[in-house]
Amino acid sequence: MESGTISKWNVAPGESFAAGDSLAVIETDKATIDFEAQDDGVMANHLVEAGGTEYNVGSPIMVTVEEEGDVAAFANFTPDDAAGGGDDAAPAAAETPAAAAPATPAEDLPYHIVVGMPALSPTMDAGTISKWNVNEGESFVAGDSIAVIETDKASIDFEAQDDGVLARHLVPAGSGEVAVGVPIMVTVDEEGDVAAFKNFEAGSAPDSAATEVSAPPPAAVEEVKAEPVVAAAAPAPVAAAPTPVALAAPTPVVPATPAAPLDAISLGGSTWGRMAAEKSPLAKALASKQKQYIEKYGSTGHIPIV
User: Fold this and answer.
1) In terms of C-beta density within 10 A (0-12 exposed, 13-18 middle, 19 or more buried), how is residue 187 classed?
2) Contact, 127 vs 180, CB < 8 A?
3) How many CB atoms lie within 10 A of CB 256?
4) CB of 132 within 8 A of CB of 187?
5) Rounded distance, CA 64 to CA 172, Å?
6) What is the separation, in whole angstroms, between the first and last Cα of the chain?
7) Residue 44 to residue 14: CA distance in whole angstroms
8) 3-state secondary structure of 194
9) Which helix (H) or strand (E) holds 295?
10) 167, 163, 165, 164: which is closest to 197 by C-alpha?
11) CB neighbours of 183 closer than 8 A, spacing ≥ 6?
12) How far is Cα 47 from Cα 27, in angstroms, rounded to an integer?
């Protein structure tokens, strides 16, 4: 969302509201959304009229106060009066810059941490703080949601990584998109240190040793000229030692056991003896074939069947 149109005011000037009440209905190019109050208060003045005109994100649209008796002071209030030139504005707005309290020197500040806009996803470049869940001076523990941060893709809770006390908001809720790394708040360890950061600005303590957001100064770099290096002569190649080859012991040759002379043929796995061979018609037929083969081709070394 880059801009929107207020289609309806749900709370008129002078009326009080509570956290969660719908103050107005805002239309964008994609949806119609209720603008809900983040805290209790009283509507002092509408700075824009409902209907028609589109306003950019961050443009002033209304003024709220805490007490109903303060509403009359903003009857003729315009956004330009916030700079301090309006006679009807609150007395604090008419003070000159010279009357502002000077920033506390960095060396006089208690230990603190300046927290930048976190990168809540690998592709996040910037985000908008839509709501502070922890007010200034309130303590928190690890895991508490300190703020709700909106990106172009989602609304994510910014959770505390450690215990502490929120000393100051450096970016108001709903003030617009803030780049990742830009300071958004200051935290301290003790509640008694909160008052020291009442007028703290993000750039008021650039040299503070306790401010984690400030980067250390770069170390001095000494220029060194490289001396020419003479390449050493390549060593003479050394012949590789021959790799010993293990020779397997020769396998002893076991002489074949001479077959016992056969006087008869084994038919069907049983030795029948010569009488069975002579009496068998099959043995006589095989013996005849064997003799014909020997006469034609010579002896094959086989024992005669009969």
Assistant:
1) buried
2) yes
3) 6
4) no
5) 14
6) 113
7) 6
8) helix
9) helix 281-297
10) 167
11) 114, 115, 116, 117, 170, 171, 202, 213
12) 17
Radius of gyration of the chain (CA): 50
In whole angstroms, what is the distance from residue 25 CA to residue 292 CA? 120
Six-digit token string for 5: 């149109």
Cβ neighbour number for residue 184 with a 10 Å cutoff: 23
Q: Share the mean pLDDT of the chain.
A: 74
pLDDT in tens, 5-50: 888 889 988 999 998 899 999 988 888 888 888 889 999 888 888 8
Place of tokens 């106060």: 65
pLDDT digits (tens, 9 = 90+) for 240-299: 555 655 555 566 665 555 444 444 444 444 455 555 555 678 878 888 888 888 888 887
Both tokens of 21, joined, read: 């009440």
- Distance (Å, rounded) from C-alpha 34 to C-alpha 252? 100
Whose structure tokens read 């708040």? 185
Residue 10 burial class via C-beta count within 10 angstroms: exposed 0-12, middle 13-18, buried 19 and up: middle
Q: Among positive and negative, which fits the CA dihedral 202, 181, 79, 62?
A: negative
Structure tokens at 138: 């309130």
